[in-house]
Design a protein that fits this description.
Blueprint lengths: L1 E6 L2 E4 L4 E9 L6 E7 L6 E6 L6 E3 L7 E6 L4 E6 L8 E8 L8 H4 L7 E2 L3 E6 L1
Parallel strand pairs: 2-11
Antiparallel strand pairs: 1-3, 3-8, 4-5, 4-9, 5-6, 7-8, 9-10, 9-11
Length: 130
């Protein structure tokens, strides 16, 4: 098993930036692909970004492409989501998640599926004011 803890959320003005971190503990972090999802009040959980186990492949949701960047440091058991040019519609609770089954060559459709992930953090609130 792996335990995940997100940090870095907060309140930011539109156009600003935030950096979210996901600290992993337990089983070796490099065994897992990592994803970021978000959920706004009254809405379903939405795919934001994912990165493969070794970090060689990344995928993004359409609404964040070109603005967000996902990365990971397996030596430090940490994942990061850098968010630039934030918009009010980015306001949500952001979750990191881990999937132990996906391989490097799997496509974005696989990693965008919330049901693929077995382990989830508690979430961190991101609020973007207009």
């Amino acid at each position: 098993q792996v335990q995940l803890v997100e940090s870095g959320g907060g309140l930011v003005q539109a156009g600003g930036s935030l950096r979210l971190s996901c600290a992993a503990s337990g089983r070796t972090f490099s065994y897992y692909a990592m994803g970021w999802f978000r959920q706004a009040p009254g809405k379903e959980r939405e795919f934001v970004a994912a990165i493969s186990k070794g970090g060689g492949n990344t995928w993004y949701g359409d609404s964040v492409k070109g603005r967000f960047t996902i990365s990971r440091d397996n030596a430090r058991n940490t994942g990061t989501l850098r968010m630039n040019t934030l918009r009010p519609e980015d306001t949500a609770v952001y979750y990191c998640a881990a999937d132990g089954e996906g391989e490097e060559y799997y496509g974005g459709t696989y990693y965008a599926d919330v049901h693929r992930y077995d382990y989830w953090g508690q979430g961190t609130q991101v609020t973007v004011s207009s």
